[in-house]
Amino acid sequence: MTAEYEINEHEVVEVSDVFHNTLFEAILNEESNINYDYNDETLKYIYTNNFEHYGLNTTEPYGLKYNFNENGYRSNTFSIGTEMLVTGCSFTFGSGIEEEFRWGDILSKKLGMSYSNLALPASSVTRQVRDIFEYFKEYGHPKYIFAMFPVFNRMEIVSNPKYLKVGAWERSIKKFKKHNSNNKTELYRQTSNINMIPMNQKFLTHPLIIEDIMPSETPQFYASLHIQMLQQYCDLAGIKFIWSTWHHPQNQVLEKVNEKYPNTFKNMVYTNPNGWVYNKQTKEYDYIENKEIVKCHEDYKVESGDMFHMARDIEFGIEWAHWGTHRHLHVAEAFENYFRNNLK
Q1: Which residues is 288 bridged to in the sheet?
Q2: Which CATH architecture has domain 58-153+217-274+312-343?
Q3: Residue 142 is inside which H or E element, if any?
Q4: Cβ proximity of 222 and 126 under 8 Å
Q5: What pTM was computed for the model?
Q6: For residue 329, what pLDDT is reported?
Q7: Does 1 have pLDDT greater than 90?
Q8: According to the model, what pLDDT value does residue 320 have?
Q9: Interatomic CA distance for residues 342 and 331, integer angstroms
Q10: Beta carbons within 8 Å of 217's beta carbon, 6+ residues apart
Q11: Measured CA distances, 224 to 2, 105, 125, 239, 253 (Å)
Q12: Is 14 a residue whose pLDDT tops 70?
């Protein structure tokens, strides 16, 4: 059955009229625009990839102290001449564990290299690649880049939350943070997990939820494209770029692409992402090989204590906590073996 309705003439507008209440109008006619809270940060978000300067700060969740450098990263001070650069999301950031037990720190010690860490929790592949290029601009080229990328469904967006916002996390465990300034709508950046929930909305209302209107192929495409661009740049610049992902289905997709189109993704390291199973009885992550639980790295179990199996970031429940130092060790060893066998 087709719904009957009338379109009033005054409701019909030219497509170009839509831009009168958007970023374009705010930039072109800043003084007269009263609907947008436009500022210099808007241009930085969209047209540049500058580091965000948070200043020095620390937090202490669950007795764990996070230290941030001048650029807002959980890393030593960035400097020219650093040999090794590491990036990723919360796993590489080391959510819930001490810095010394992160795979990046472990790997740098194994290889005897100075290193900096660009990882940020909940960040997307595109954000991480963007930060890498900004690092190049300010601190030059490292000799090596090691990346542990997240699932490619994550996508960074810049939006006016009056019309479009991220909704998947807000529907589950996080509250949506609203920004208001003198009754104007601010433009700000968010990270979405596209297809984190089923897109089964029958009706769409403002503000639109990006997960309801965008297919997962879109972030998958742009994440893959960014990796390939970084890969090509590193080849030309003489940088060794080695990477993996912690997500098993994502690894399977990438491997199938490489089977059909060889060398689409080069220097991709397999870190056995399917080898970790959460044990509900022990509330620990078991490491599995050939369908058997493997007991290993017992010396680190003593050293890292309660962080060996599970990280301490349990604010949303233990099932949401990150992997502990045991998985970080395996990732560091996988990268080290690939490096020594293929690149040294």
Answers
A1: 293
A2: 3-Layer(aba) Sandwich (3.40)
A3: none
A4: yes
A5: 0.84
A6: 96
A7: no
A8: 78
A9: 16
A10: none
A11: 41, 26, 8, 19, 11
A12: no
Cα 336 to its chain centre, rounded Å, is 23
* Domain ranges (residues) in the chain: 23-47+155-213, 58-153+217-274+312-343
Cross-strand pairs, 192? 155
User: Is 70 in a helix, a strand, or coil?
Assistant: coil
Which of 142-156, 201-215, 266-280 shows the lowest per-residue confidence on average (mean pLDDT)?
A: 201-215
Partnered with residue 147 across adjacent β-strands are: 87, 243
Nearest-angstrom CA–CA distance, 105 and 321 = 20
341 pLDDT higher than 50: yes
DSSP string spanning 54-123?
--S-EE-GGG--EE--TTSSSSSPP-TT-SEEEEESHHHHTTTS-GGGSHHHHHHHHHT--EEE---TT-
Q: How far apart (Å, rounded) are the C-alpha atoms in residues 273 and 59?
A: 30
- Whether 65 and 148 have beta carbons less than 8 Å apart is answered as no
Helix (H, G, I), strand (E, B) or coil at 188: strand
Put the strands of the sheet holding 84-88 in their side by side order: 115-117, 84-88, 144-149, 240-245
Torsion region of 100: left, alpha or beta (phi above 0 gives left; psi -120 to 50 gives alpha)? alpha
- pLDDT tens per residue across span 157-200: 777 777 777 775 554 434 334 433 444 445 555 677 776 655 56
The residue to which tokens 């999301």 are assigned: 89
Q: Which amino acid is at 197?
A: I
Q: Which tokens hold the place of 127?
A: 């954000």
State which amino acid sits at residue 146: F
Going 213 to 216 to 221 to 222, the CA torsion angle's sign is positive
| 78: amino acid identity, one letter | F
What's the gap between Cα 321 and its chain centre? 17
Per residue in 51-110, pLDDT (tens digit) is 765 555 566 666 688 888 988 899 999 999 999 999 999 999 999 999 999 999 999 999
Ranges assigned E (strand) in 166-322 = 180-181, 184-186, 188-193, 208-209, 240-245, 276-279, 284-289, 292-293
Dihedrals phi, psi of 122, to nearest 5 degrees: 65, 10
| Residue 306 DSSP symbol | G
Q: What is the DSSP letter of 267?
A: S
Quote the CA–CA distance of 189 and 226 in Å, as a whole number: 19
- How many residues comprise the chain? 344
Q: Looking at residue 36, what is its pLDDT? A: 58
For helices 103-111 and 325-338, give the axis angle rounded to 10 degrees: 40
